[in-house]
Amino acid sequence: xxxxxDGPAASGKGTIARRLATHYGxxxxxxxxxxxxxxxxxxxxxxxxxxxxxxxxxxASLDVAALDAEALKSGAVGEAASRVAALPAVRAALLRLQxxxxxxxxxxxLDGRDIGTVxxxxxxxxxxxxxxxxxxxxRRHRELAARGEAVGFEEVLADIRRRDERDSGRASxxxxxxxxxxxxDNTTLGVEESWQAALALAERARAGR
Length: 209
Ligand SMILES: Nc1ncnc2c1ncn2[C@@H]1O[C@H](COP(=O)(O)OP(=O)(O)OP(=O)(O)O)[C@@H](O)[C@H]1O
Ligand SMILES: Nc1ccn([C@@H]2O[C@H](COP(=O)(O)O)[C@@H](O)[C@H]2O)c(=O)n1
What we know:
Blueprint: E1 2-6, H1 13-24, E2 28-30, H2 32-45, H3 52-60, H4 75-84, H5 88-102, E3 108-112, H6 115-119, E4 125-130, H7 133-146, H8 153-169, E5 182-185, H9 191-206
Parallel strand pairs: 1-3, 1-4, 2-3, 4-5
Helix pairs in contact: 1-9, 2-3, 2-4, 3-5, 7-8
The structure holds adenosine-5'-triphosphate (ATP) and the ligand Nc1ccn([C@@H]2O[C@H](COP(=O)(O)O)[C@@H](O)[C@H]2O)c(=O)n1.
């Protein structure tokens, strides 16, 4: 069974995806980490963000087993990720890897922006997890503060809005709700309530209701 979870930045889709994976005993891929790894490498190596061929080369040679999720979660890397993710050649270089992960025997849980629309449109369970930009900025601000990143709330909110615009407005695999996705708006829900709501929606989709 493939479970596809999409949604904007800091909507809580990763938290839900991890818990669904544990609940159903499925492998999980946070596809945002792939774009973050390309963005981080570009920053580290000083690659021009307009050099699509060089960035696609980095994407094609990613060692997925070596991704350091913790190190890739900084605000600067998130911004770099959303810039490289707008480039069709970068997306093309990461496509097969994600599709193979989704289609492994027994299934998988993937979260990102285009899982239900591009990577695994055949997924029987599709959730689109969202919340207002303000609610998401509160979450991201708290998360960055816990990492020791001293950044103001207004800056985080502006970053969230900029990323929403870039992710939804790009021509290549934009962030968009799949027609057959179930929407979970967790603006007023805490982590536990959001998880319970997601599980109920997943169970409903599994039962074909
Ligand atoms: N319903 C919720 N209420 C409050 N905080 C939440 C909720 N869901 C997740 N969080 C917290 O918000 C932060 C972002 O959550 P998470 O990483 O799951 O979001 P995401 O959509 O996967 O983000 P990204 O787009 O960066 O991958 C985390 O610190 C998480 O613990
Ligand atoms: N399937 C995906 C996943 C991510 N992106 C881009 O990567 C950026 C970082 O993702 P996070 O989920 O870790 O925040 C994100 O802003 C997207 O631009 C993507 O395009 N497709």
